[in-house]
Design a protein that fits this description.
Elements (H helix, E strand, L loop, with lengths): L24 E2 L18 E5 L8 E12 L2 E11 L6 E8 L5 E9 L2 E9 H13 L4 E6 L4 E9 L5 E10 L2 E2 L2 E6 L7 H6 L12 E9 L4 E5 L8 E6 L2 E9 L7 E7 L6 E7 L7 E8 L11 E8 L8 H13 L6 E7 L3 E3 L5 E2 L2 H11 L10 H8 L8 E8 L10 H9 L4 E7 L5 H11 L2 E5 L5 H8 L8 E9 L3 E2 L5 E5 L5 E7 L3 E11 L2 E11 L9 H18 L5 H15 L6 E6 L1 H7 L4 H17 L35 H24 L1
Parallel strand pairs: 1-2, 3-13, 20-21, 20-24, 24-25, 25-26
Antiparallel strand pairs: 2-5, 3-4, 4-10, 5-9, 6-7, 6-10, 7-33, 8-9, 8-33, 11-12, 12-17, 13-16, 14-17, 15-16, 18-19, 19-30, 21-22, 21-23, 27-29, 27-31, 28-30, 31-32
Length: about 700
């Protein structure tokens, strides 16, 4: 089937173009060699010959289009490749898996042939792919490699003929302290597992033709500004209407080795609110909803002293990063107040206290410990459990304690069972705020650690922006939080949701919750929590729609949230492994999601028909594209449901750059985020120097 315009206008409305995007995919060497050794950063996505003796496949063009519309983002990637070898080959394409991302479409174009993907149980999909490959037919396969990446197999990549690969995925986005953040995660690099097992040579990090990326932001709330850190001089930004922005960048001969990070900042002083995006196309079937709760409660700063444990990764993969990390901790210590206390623990294969117990943050003590900190050396593997176990010792029950865990790696030494981490954190009253550098860390484990402690976790891209990360993290640990928070819906029957028990809710934190409802009607929403030792309740009423078809993608995002919950319960031993695997497989097939138990096989229409495979994804994609086409010509919809009866009274106080509600000084977490972001240009410069 001939297709001269493989990216449809409905799938790619006229977005903006972020092209000096220096983060992307590479042609490389063989299927298992995805990463660089010695701390060299490689682009995370690549199409590589399966046989390492073949010449690398060349990237001709790379185009990215992103639509951010009221709480979730759609990303569409189209790459063109050419095979310089004299024979056809099987190629493997690796793409870093964004957290909470739902892959929806894969299309492969080879000459005049166009083939599409359907999700099947993993074993069945692999068998079909191998059979079609053996028969010499055009085929493809997408599998979840691990928690880090998706792997796409493409056969055949013919000599002298361009091959195009198109993927589409969705993900929910959260607003923290009025700042929205989207990351196009393309940079792998530097974790212990990679350093031990990697191999690379002859890797191309250039796009032969053009690299372009486009972002269109539609917000129902006023937007004060947008930023693409590192690309300010190359991007063109336009404001189409209030809350409607486009950014465009196009670049030839682009070097592809950095993440793209896009920030947007909402107007100051917006009220707390509840927004509900629902989908219910059939009155005889349940509806699905995404509920976004933005608390407007004025949580006060903590005035008593607090304890901070800095738990720092000093494993071998931190080569080239550790000194920047140390300088950031030094700056953090300089911002602490005299009634605060701190402890520094370093971990690799082992864990040890760098400070002799808790240190009062007087100027003299800080200066003394800084000298010790500067002498830290690196080496060995990553034993996060030993570090956390040591960090939970000798706590003072009368003081709030937070662990700031910073690592760039995957735990590969000592105890690695998630249930042991869960039990460790449940045994103490301490909050863990985890920060993971790069795109290769063990997200499920970090989620287990932080959720069990009532803390939060976040990724830190080497391309992150200082201001944005500070605004996202600044006030969490220096202000009161809502304890034992629950969110309940009455009046209509809701189910399959994760909103009943929220635990702690922090200042500036936005809650994104998914669930299902039996039918439309009036609902009463109640947020109950303890604040300053007192029970507090907030309520509002609103209507769930009987029919709503504007956002069908919500169904995939809901299913993905269910899968995450099943995975979490399986990891900590609540759900038996076999039961969890079956549930994940069934959800993956029903909602067409690539999971640990399912894969997407890519075939021609006639082959699907011959094999009797139901086109569930084709039907779902058609529905989603139709809705996207309608939305592309309309302004952003305001989905706030509590205008007449606000769930929370008052307005959230937010500070930008260091003044206001936080008391004027940057807290340790904020300054540490400065450190992590300041590292970005250092790492980039080192990588560039190594390549030159």
């Amino acid at each position: 089937m001939k297709n001269n315009h493989p990216v449809s206008k409905t799938a790619l409305p006229a977005f903006a173009s972020l092209s000096s995007l220096k983060a992307s995919f590479r042609a490389a060497l063989f299927s298992t060699a995805l990463l660089a050794s010695g701390g060299i950063a490689l682009g995370a996505g690549m199409l590589t010959p399966k046989n390492s003796s073949d010449q690398p496949i060349k990237i001709i063009d790379h185009h990215v289009a992103v639509t951010i519309n009221n709480g979730f983002a759609q990303t569409e990637v189209l790459q063109s490749f050419t095979n310089p070898n004299a024979h056809a080959l099987e190629a493997i394409y690796s793409f870093p898996l964004p957290q909470k991302a739902s892959l929806s479409e894969i299309t492969i174009y080879s000459g005049e042939t166009e083939i599409h993907g359907e999700v099947l149980p993993r074993k069945e999909a692999r068998e079909i792919y191998e059979e079609e490959k053996t028969a010499g037919n055009d085929t493809g396969l997408a599998e979840k490699k691990n928690f880090r990446s998706l792997e796409f197999r493409v056969f055949p990549v013919r000599p002298g003929e361009d091959t195009k690969l198109r993927i589409v995925y969705y993900q929910p986005l959260e607003i923290e302290s009025g700042i929205g953040r989207y990351v196009y995660p393309l940079q792998e690099g530097g974790t212990d597992d990679q350093a031990a097992n990697s191999f690379w040579s002859g890797v191309s990090d250039k796009v032969e033709g053009t690299f372009s990326a486009e972002i269109e932001l539609k917000s129902a709330w006023p937007v004060e500004g947008v930023r693409v850190p590192g690309f300010e001089n190359d991007s063109k930004s336009e404001v189409l209407a209030e809350g409607h922005h486009r950014i465009r960048i196009d670049k030839a001969d682009a070097s592809l080795d950095r993440d793209l990070v896009f920030y947007y900042r909402l107007q100051d002083g917006l009220p707390g609110r509840v927004e509900v995006v629902a989908h219910r196309a059939d009155p005889d079937k349940p509806g699905t909803y995404m509920m976004v709760v933005t608390p407007g409660i004025d949580l006060k700063p903590i005035t008593t002293g607090a304890d901070y444990t800095f738990l720092l990764d000093t494993s071998g993969s931190m080569q080239g990063k550790i000194q920047t990390l140390i300088e950031g901790v030094v700056k953090t210590l300089g911002q602490m107040k005299a009634h605060d206390r701190f402890k520094i623990i370093a971990f690799n294969n082992q864990a040890k206290e760098i400070t002799p117990g808790w240190i009062t943050a007087t100027p003299e003590n800080v200066e003394r410990e800084i000298q010790t900190l500067r002498s830290l050396s690196i080496g060995g593997g990553t034993n996060i459990y030993k570090g956390l176990h040591l960090a939970t010792k000798n706590l003072d029950n009368d003081r709030a304690t937070s662990i700031i865990l910073v690592t760039d790696g995957v735990t590969n030494d000592g105890i690695i069972a998630p249930q042991r981490f869960h039990d460790l954190m449940k045994a103490t009253d301490i909050r863990v705020f985890g920060f993971v550098m790069g795109n290769s860390a063990n997200w499920p484990l970090m989620r287990t650690i932080c959720n069990a402690s009532g803390g939060t976790y976040s990724g830190v891209s080497n391309a992150d922006d200082i201001v944005g990360k500070i605004l996202q993290a600044k006030e969490k640990i220096t202000h009161e939080c809502l304890h034992d928070a629950t969110l309940k819906i009455k009046g209509i029957r809701t189910f399959d949701n994760r909103s009943e028990l929220l635990g702690k809710v922090y200042r500036g934190e936005q809650l994104v919750l998914f669930g299902r409802y039996a039918k439309g009607g009036q609902a009463k929403l109640t947020l109950a929590a303890r604040l300053t030792g007192k029970d507090t309740t907030y309520t509002t009423e609103f209507d769930f729609p009987e029919l709503e078809t504007t956002n069908p993608e919500i169904e995939r995002l809901w299913a993905l949230s269910q899968i995450e919950e099943i995975e979490q319960k399986t990891h900590v031993g609540i759900t038996p492994s076999a039961e969890g695997a079956t549930a994940i497989r069934d959800l993956g097939v029903a909602y067409q999601l690539v999971t640990d138990e399912t894969s997407m096989v890519v075939l021609s229409d006639s082959t699907f028909t011959k094999r009797g495979i139901e086109r569930k994804n084709a039907k779902r994609v058609a529905t989603e594209r139709q809705a996207q086409s309608v939305r592309s010509s309309q302004p952003a919809t305001n989905y706030q449901v509590d205008q007449h009866q606000p769930l929370t009274q008052g307005k959230p106080r937010r500070t930008f750059g260091g003044g206001g509600g936080g008391g004027g000084a940057l807290n340790p977490l904020a300054v540490l985020m400065i450190l992590l972001v300041l590292a970005a240009p250092v790492f980039a410069a080192k990588n560039e120097k190594k390549r030159s």
